[in-house]
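Need residues for this backbone.
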């Protein structure tokens, strides 16, 4: 593992050292498992107290929690951001040398940059184009006419159906299938007739897709995922869906066909979104919501069927009062019956 001085880390993170700038740090760990020589981090006072009592030699900290008496501090504007920046320094990703494994099958018409890495058991189809620094780790399938931009990385057992286009620095994790047939059928004389899905999938720059995700190709045109969008594991994106830039889509979300989602939108876990809807920019949809309607820009929705958060919260509060209200109504009915029939 590489070693850095506190001053070197502070310079990289745009921070300031309080304590020994020459202190050497050879690891990064949470406070409860840190050891001497490690850097840990604290983003609030509770974290800082634990860091102070840990075996770590230095603390990456945001805010002014008082000068540490026992440890060197690296003070930064945002500890969480600095955490994301410093981890790759201590734990760099493995390097993959250029070249092709003898077991890889590469079509003669494919264009593969000399700097690309093609791992064991990979298949690259006719006329596919792989740019500089592309990594296919193992048993990846890249179909005919696919285009992979600079520094794309496919983890093991990824499948790209023909004509899929991946921009620069796209990362696709194991088991994901890009470009399978969209789910399109019409009823014809009592049976489901398949509608051919002849479109494609386009993933723009810096998209990252988790494990076991399915992104279906369009019936016509393209299913599109915008620049910088991050998709968690086990997500289903149907044909002709268009997701904007820098969105977050959490695990087990399902998005039905032809829905359009704006940029900077967050879709929490297990949300279901019906087809042909329009979801605006900077929308937040709470976990396990069922979206059946268009959502305007900037709103927060929740529930099934989903409504704006204030509306849904009022409904939930009212539902919590129902048992008491039913009891009171029962008492009133009993009193009313006694008034109508005193003898009884």
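Answer:
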């Amino acid at each position: 593992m590489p070693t850095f001085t506190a001053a070197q880390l502070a310079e990289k993170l745009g921070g300031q050292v309080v304590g020994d700038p020459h202190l050497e740090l050879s690891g990064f760990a949470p406070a409860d498992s840190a050891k001497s020589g490690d850097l840990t981090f604290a983003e609030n006072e509770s974290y800082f107290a634990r860091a102070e009592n840990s075996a770590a030699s230095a603390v990456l900290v945001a805010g002014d929690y008082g000068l540490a008496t026992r440890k060197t501090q690296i003070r930064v504007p945002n500890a969480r951001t600095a955490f994301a920046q410093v981890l790759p320094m201590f734990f760099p990703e493995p390097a993959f040398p250029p070249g092709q494994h003898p077991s890889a099958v590469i079509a003669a018409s494919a264009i593969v940059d000399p700097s690309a890495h093609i791992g064991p058991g990979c298949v690259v189809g006719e006329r596919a184009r792989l740019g500089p620094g592309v990594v296919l780790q193992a048993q990846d399938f890249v179909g005919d006419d696919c285009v992979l931009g600079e520094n794309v990385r496919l983890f093991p057992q990824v499948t790209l159906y023909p004509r899929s286009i991946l921009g620069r620095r796209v990362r696709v994790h194991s088991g994901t299938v890009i470009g399978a047939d969209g789910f399109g059928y019409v009823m014809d004389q009592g049976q489901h007739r398949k509608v051919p899905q002849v479109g494609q999938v386009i993933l723009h720059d810096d998209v990252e897709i988790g494990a076991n995700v399915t992104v279906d190709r369009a019936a016509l045109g393209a299913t599109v995922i915008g620049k910088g969008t991050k998709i968690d594991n086990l997500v289903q994106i149907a044909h002709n869906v268009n997701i904007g830039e820098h969105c977050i889509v959490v695990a087990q979300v399902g998005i039905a066909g032809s829905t359009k989602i704006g940029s900077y939108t967050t879709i929490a876990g297990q949300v279901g979104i019906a087809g042909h809807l329009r979801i605006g920019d900077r929308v937040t949809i709470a976990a396990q919501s069922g979206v059946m309607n268009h959502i305007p820009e900037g709103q927060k929705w929740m529930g099934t069927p989903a409504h704006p958060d204030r509306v849904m919260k009022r409904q939930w509060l009212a539902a919590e009062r129902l048992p008491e209200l039913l009891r009171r109504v029962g008492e009133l009915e009993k009193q009313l019956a006694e008034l109508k029939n005193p003898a009884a």
